[in-house]
Specification:
The chain is mostly helical. It is built from 7 helices and no strands.
Amino acid sequence: MMRSSNPFLKNNSFALPTTQPHERMSLEGVANRTGMLLIVVLFFAAMTWMITWGEIEANYDAVNSGLEPTAGGWTMLFLVVGGVASLIVALIIWFKRPENPQMLMFTYAAFEGMLLGSFSAIAELMVPGVAIQAVGLTFGIFLTMLGIYRLGLIHPSKNFYIAISSAMGAIFLIYFVSFALWMVPGAPQVPFIHGSGWIGIGFSLFVIMIAALSFVMDFDFIEKGVENGAPKKMEWWAAFGLLVTLVWLYVEIIRLLLKLAARK
């Protein structure tokens, strides 16, 4: 049975293969649709970044006090709206699983771009140059895992799937509890993992490793879908799943770089 740790790539999606070649899933189709979603993310991230930095520079020039600039109202608006809206759209896609999900996926990509643009701007304020480093590392890890998969250096097994899926579930549970506690004034926070100590750095490295390994399972899932003649609409689901993993990896890499910078 084909499996994937990515919740957007269901194991039963390829149960009924189509017989028409032009209606079948292809690697080229997955790559094209992934590229389309990434373009939307990058466009909205760039627009958000420019607006955010324009606001920051205006405030900085107005104050003219030599202090470090701080993120303004637009930055926080993009951060909150992008984060909440992208989560809501992702949950709708996950639970409803519409027959034609393209518009919802493009909507998710737009809101995710807003989130990443503002998040990256805030990170850049804290550590100049961190955003471009994170972008390079994200796609470097993606290409590395693709190469590892194509060379057959990792062979996903049933136990491998179970281990990575369990680790992902534990990570998201920790983040959910951490976010819930953060929303409650005066509530105790989850210790260590958000700090710049060795435990926090080790946790970030572990999360990045799990995100990277999930690519291998997604590649395997997609390849078997192509081999089994999955419906062409599954190209969108595969592309969306890869996008979610890329975004997750990028955010975790920025978090790690910020922790490392805080130790200097």
